[in-house]
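Hey Z.,

So I finally got round to the 2-oxoglutaric acid thing we talked about over coffee. Here's the setup:
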Amino acid sequence: MTGLTAEQAEFFQREGYLHLPGILAATDLDPVQAELEQIIERAARGLLAAGTIDSDYAELPFDRRLIPLVRADASAAAGVNFPANLGPAIFDFLHNESLLDIVEALVGPEIYAHSCQHIRAKLPATDDYAGAISQSEWAGSTAWHQDQGVLLPEADDTLVVTSWIPLVDAVAENGTLRIIPRCHHEPLRRHVRPPAGEGGSYTVAPEELPDTEPVTIPVQRGGMILLHCRTPHSSEPNRSDGIRWSMDLRWNDARLPNGRPQLPGMLVRSLESPELVVDHAEWVTAWKLAQVSRRGSKLYRW
Ligand SMILES: O=C(O)CCC(=O)C(=O)O
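And the result:
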């Protein structure tokens, strides 16, 4: 089963990315959003009970409600991302048939959902939310990086594909993804830690940034961008009034090294070993164990 045309697969191989508009239905995304809304509801109730806020802001829509909560307490967003959020809806989405058909066209039929995966509430960069901007890589910009640069060298010969999936329309104003095409045939560039206090993860060393014009890709809810793991990408701060919600989920051939051996990804589709596809409870247990046992182990190459 393949979810890409030959032309789409060719574009990905040549350019290092692919924009697929209108590929997911509301019925695919709504359960994930509803689960996030429940998490936000719990955060609001907790802050209300603690006396930190005097309204639960229940009247605000999905792309707004978290803003006053984070403004009151920077930790209000802590539950939305993996592994704090391992709910059944996101688990089901990681097995979404349309999504896996697309992924299969690139990584083959043994599909591993990589443990390097995020649900991002990218907040409007209008104030610093009592320090949350400097503490959280989600709130500000995301610096240029290649996803292979945050994995261990064991995965250098593995194609790890990122599917970047917004839950709201993502445009230049709210900080949609920017990519630099056609770099993935070249070796990985050296990454450095961002300057102290700026938050965020590793970034391509400034002198190693390619001289190619970046492409900014607006993506409507229902669309996605696929990225090769050596395609440099970044995002600008969110200059809109609403939250730019998105998921970046990674995938590779389950038989190959994935570069994050200490954290539990999971087999989500397999022709060879379907009996090893785990259920929700097993996935949650694996994460709980990893959070205890991975202490002190090396996650990053640099
Ligand atoms: O969502 C963003 O703004 C950045 C995403 C990203 O860096 C990634 O998917 O690796």
